[in-house]
Structures are given as structure tokens and as C-alpha cells.
Amino acid sequence: MTPRRIALAAGGTGGHVFPALSLADALSARGHQVFVLTDARGGVFDTPDTPWSVHLIRAASPSKPGLFAKLAAVAKLALGFLDARRVLKTFQIEAVVGFGGYPSVPAVIAGSWLNKPAVLHEQNAVLGRANRWLVGRADVVATSFDATIGVDGAGKSMERTGNPVRASVLARRSDPYRAPVDAAPIQLCVFGGSLGARVFSDLLPAALALLPEPLRARLRLTQQCRPDDLEKVRRAYDALGLQAEVGSFFDDVPARLGAAQLVIARAGASTLSELAVIGRPSILVPYPHAMDDHQSRNAAAMETAGGGWCLPEATLTAERLAERLEALLGDPKTLASAAQAAHDFGVVDAADRLADLVLRTVAARGGKLADPELDRRHDADAPANERRALA
After folding, report:
1. Starting at the edge strand that comes first in sequence, how are the strands of the sheet with 282-284 ordered?
2. What is the pTM of this model?
């Protein structure tokens, strides 16, 4: 095996960070050296005993309103380019993998300036803004969906690797789906992204109040809410006599998804990937203000695959949601079929597929690479990378 030195550039939200962490694990397990380039928000990468090194680079969003803010962001990205170039040259990096978000911009541009191959990973069904800026510099774009808007028009090679998920999600892949039966309790999970979704806090209590009482009595509800909605939602469910666990954060989401018989959620890339890997049917309500409406495209892909149902927020009412819930919860065969379709849609080895693509791209530019299957073997005696951070 030829050890490679690969830089991963990601920061910001978990949607960018979790796939990068998964790839870092996959490459490190094969004995390759991984260097993570991130901004001040990327502290999740810098944890004890990780086999990769973390390097801070400067980055900011030029999409902020106001001319001064835009100019300041451009200046910060230029400084980030210098930071990234210094890391790439110092450690003789062989390739850069960008995961979107603004920290990936100076890193990929610096790699291009040094004539290093670049792989972009796109989590959503629409190419994100940062990746749109960078696609012209990429050797290949790794996608999470079969069709990703914005790649074809750029004339770039595209390969569906899937969206890598956390190990705790992969561990639930074999959890069997159990459709609702007879008068047994029904596990219903409602997640709205990292900050919850106000539309669910407003509509769910009203929709559940419209369900027939025997059905409502069977529900065992988990719902994520914004902190300022918690008391209002709890009071509403107490008034209904509903068994509900309401919180602004749950640290065991994969386990709760594994136990769920139906999930109501936004349609972010990480959420869909987790639903697919575990294999759970879902009602998806895309966030209507997402950039380029990418959540609607994500939800449409899951619906086309047969794994869920997309309900646009603009036309969603308590009455319509109650009607859909009553129909689905009373139709175990349809739920079981959707669970299987979601399971089939999931890409369980996305991190390894992405690692294979990155290593093939390096080999195409820089020489022969060992057989990918042999390359998967972990060299347990390989020393951990020295940790360095550039302010």
C-alpha cells in the first residue's frame, strides 16, 4: 500500500462535518495520513486520540448583507487561501477533498493553485453555493443522489458515493422495521434539524388532536422543538393526555430512529441519509427557505424511491397532516413497504466508496495505487499524525 496525504476541508454545520469525519475515519483506517482544514467552528474535529491533524484556516461567508461585510469576508477568504497553501506545501498534501461550506473554498483553491487533484462531495440533490464556486477546479464530484442539479452543466465527472453517516447510525442498519399492529403502541418521531422546526411545534399538536382518540392513545411521541416552544408544546400534549417526550436536543437520535414506526422531519441531507441507512418511512416537510430549495429536491428523491412522502410547508395544514397520519398509521403494509424502499435507497458503505474515489483520483494524477481491497486493511502500528493548528 502507498500511504497518501489527503486534506479534507469542511466546517460549519453537521451536514458538512459528519461526512468529512466519516471519510477521515475511513482513510485513516487504511493507513493514510489525513489533514483536516477547518475554521473556528470546526472544533468537533479536534478531539483526543484522533489519527488526523487539524489545521485552522480563515474563512467567512461573502453572502452576508452589506458591502463592508462582503469585502471583509472576501479578505478573510484570501487570508484563508494563504493559510491553506501553507499547510498543503508544508505537509506535501497530494489531494484536497472539499465538503462544501466556506472553509472548503480557500482550501480547494489553494490545492488547485498547487496543481493538486480535488474531489468535491455534495450532500444535497442541488450543488451548494461553495461547491458551485469550486466545481470548475474539481477532478470529480461525489454525489449523494443519482441526479444532482448543477453538476451536469459544469461538464464534470460525477459519481454517486452516497452521503457518509455516523457509526452510531450504521449500527442501526440491521434493526428490523416493525409496522404498527392491532392496538399496540406506535412510535412516532418528529425531528426538525439541529434547531427544531417551528412548523412542527405549531401543527403537530393541532393535527394529533384531530386523530381518532383510540389511535391517538396508541402514540408514543418523541418531538424535537426549539427551546422557546418547549413549554407550549408540552402543555398541548398534556391536555391531550398524549405520552410525549419533548426536547430541544436528543443525544440518542439513531436509537430513536431505529425504534420509530414513522418519522416526521425536515429534508436535510444528513436526515435523509440516516433515514435511508436505518430504513424508516417518513413524512418530509422541506424547509422552504433552504438555499436553491435543495430540501425539496432531497425529499423528491426519497419520495421517488418510495421511502417517504413529501408535504410542502406552504400547503400543509393540521387537517391535512392529520389525514395523512391517520391513513398511514392505519396501513401497516404501506409503511413496511416504504421502510424497505428507504432501506434499499441507503448507501451503507458511502465512506468507503468516497475513500475509493479519492484514492483513484490521486492515482490518476500521481501514479499507481495498490489494489483498493488490499488498501482497506488497517496498519495498526502506523503512528498517529502530529497535531498542529494554524491560527
Report:
1. 243-247, 219-224, 186-191, 262-265, 282-284, 308-310
2. 0.88
